[in-house]
Write a structure and sequence with these properties.
Strand 5 and strand 6 (186-189) form a beta hairpin. The chain folds into three domains: 5-247, HUPs (Rossmann fold, 3-Layer(aba) Sandwich), CATH 3.40.50.620; 269-367, no CATH class; 389-410 and 418-429, no CATH class. By secondary structure, the chain is of the alpha/beta class. It has helices at residues 5-17, 34-47, 71-90, 108-114, 126-147, 162-171, 197-206, 216-225, 258-265, 272-286, 288-291, 311-331, 339-351, 359-367, 377-390, 396-413, 420-438, and strands at 26-29, 59-64, 95-100, 150-153, 179-180, 186-189, 228-229, 245-246. Helices cover 52% and strands 7% of the residues. The longest helix has 22 residues, at 126-147. The strands form two sheets. It has a six-stranded mixed beta sheet with strand order 3-2-1-4-6-5, with helices on both faces. Residues 373-434 form a coiled coil. One of its GO terms (molecular function) is catalytic activity. InterPro entries: PAPS_reduct_dom (IPR002500), Rossmann-like_a/b/a_fold (IPR014729), Sulfate_adenylyltrnsfr_sub2 (IPR050128), SulphurTrfase_DndC (IPR017598). Residues 28-206 form the Phosphoadenosine phosphosulphate reductase domain.
């Protein structure tokens, strides 16, 4: 093997033992792909050569789940992380696995279906910051606050792409192993930056992982998907994904999801509904005159700039996601959208004055069951009956009052009253306009 593994391990050992600040933790970015797997394995084997009494620096293996990752990869990474954590305890390596996820209000479906954000493209990639950068940044910032500084170990390699090579060169500090990072008091250590792709695969094929098992499943995934992987994204200088990659199954930034197509062609036909949804998202994005509002969320209109998805579009996307989830839950045990996300989607629909179609109604029709959006469902039914009796003389007022109550209840559910008065005034204005039109 042309790769000098001993040199890489010596670099890692030297940095670990003779760092000027021995208290700053190491944060290893782990995506489950080939690059981060080699990084973690090289670091692990290097640490095994250090006397146990000197292993005092805390190490965190950080894996980010966007909640819309390719389900096949999620299964694989989940199994791998469990092996890593167990082996670290058994081998007395000071290593802890940390998984990060986006905030509920930043999740892909809440933004896209709830607020009507259009499917991302390479010019408006709203997903990267909310799903990837922010969750990981929160953890890194937390560790910096606890320890003063932190070193982030990444599996970025110059050989992977010209853009990554340029990014590495731009931020490196001449004569030093560590390079700067946009976060204050954070530094980047990229031990395998000069390793070629051929050397990487030779290493993974010849050296088994120290946490047990083999790399056969990883190699098979790459072979079947004909794909690269998404690195752990920690800032805007880190490329989100290449043109062919493992990553979010909803990704519309790439023209063609070669990894998912490859997996489907190689026997994973159950993923076809996911591919269909992704293709539909591209259609809604690329045909704004059909699927999007002319007005932006602030109420303004500008030639050539489209607003959020129409309410009908959001409903159609939710229907397609839930139909796919129903079939996948039965066959694969996969959940595409959570109950909490649907509650927040309903909250945003109310705020956008969408009352006629409820999330729970869509869910119940597809799953042929009852989904309670709150604990007060029975009480709401009683209130509606009382309301109808009270408004016998003015039946048209029933819907208005129900909508105003829904706004108030949703605000209570979200523990936020801010903006409630504006929402009520907007609904009243809408009611007045509708009354005028009918007159």
């Amino acid at each position: 093997m042309a790769l000098d593994v001993k040199f890489l391990e010596a670099e890692i050992i030297d940095q670990y033992l003779y760092d000027e600040n021995a208290t700053r933790p190491w944060i290893i970015g782990f995506s489950g792909g080939k690059d981060s797997t080699m990084l973690l394995q090289i670091v692990w084997n290097a640490l095994k050569k250090i006397e146990p009494v000197l292993l005092t620096r805390q190490i965190y293996v950080v894996c980010n789940d966007t909640l819309v990752e390719n389900p096949q990869i999620v299964k694989f990474i989940s199994k791998t992380l469990k092996k890593i954590q167990k082996a670290a305890v058994d081998q007395q390596i000071p290593l802890v696995v940390k998984e990060t996820i986006p905030k509920l209000e930043d999740s892909f479906w809440v933004r896209l279906i709830g607020l009507g954000y259009p499917a991302p493209n390479r010019f408006y990639r709203w997903c990267t910051e909310r799903l990837k950068i922010n969750p990981t940044t929160r953890l890194i910032t937390e560790k910096i606050a606890e320890n003063g500084e932190a070193i982030i170990l990444l599996g970025t390699r110059s050989d992977e792409s010209s853009r990554r090579a340029a990014s590495i060169k731009k931020h490196e500090i001449k004569g030093q192993r560590l390079r700067s990072h946009p976060l204050p008091n954070a530094y980047v250590f990229a031990p395998i930056k000069d390793v070629t792709t051929n050397e990487l695969w030779q290493y993974l094929n010849q050296v088994p992982p120290p946490w047990g098992g083999t790399h056969k499943e990883l190699v098979t995934l790459y072979r079947n998907a004909n794909s690269g992987d998404c690195p752990l994204v920690i800032d805007t200088t880190t490329p989100s994904c290449g043109n062919s990659r493992f990553g979010c199954w909803v990704c519309t930034v790439v023209n063609k999801d070669k990894s998912m197509d490859g997996l489907i062609e190689n026997g994973e036909e159950w993923m076809q509904p996911l591919a269909n949804i992704r293709n539909f998202l591209i259609e809604t994005r690329d045909n704004p005159e059909i699927w999007r509002e002319k007005r932006r969320r602030d109420g303004t209109e500008k030639e050539g700039i489209w607003g959020p998805y129409k309410f009908e579009t959001r409903v159609e996307i939710l229907k397609r996601v839930l139909k796919a989830q129903k079939s996948l839950e039965e066959t694969e045990g996969i959940e595409l959208i959570t109950h909490q996300e649907m509650v927040l989607i309903q909250y945003h629909w109310f705020r956008d004055l969408f009352f006629k179609t409820r999330v729970s109604t869509i869910y119940n029709r597809i799953f042929k069951t009852q989904m309670d959006m709150s604990k007060h469902e029975e009480k709401l039914k009683e209130e509606n009956e009382l309301l109808r009796k009270s408004c016998k003389q003015e039946p048209k007022d029933v819907e208005l009052i129900q909508d105003l109550l829904a706004l108030q209840k949703t605000k209570t559910l979200m523990m936020r009253k801010r903006g409630l008065l504006d929402d009520i005034e907007n609904r009243l204005d809408q009611f007045i306009e509708e009354t005028k039109e009918k007159a």
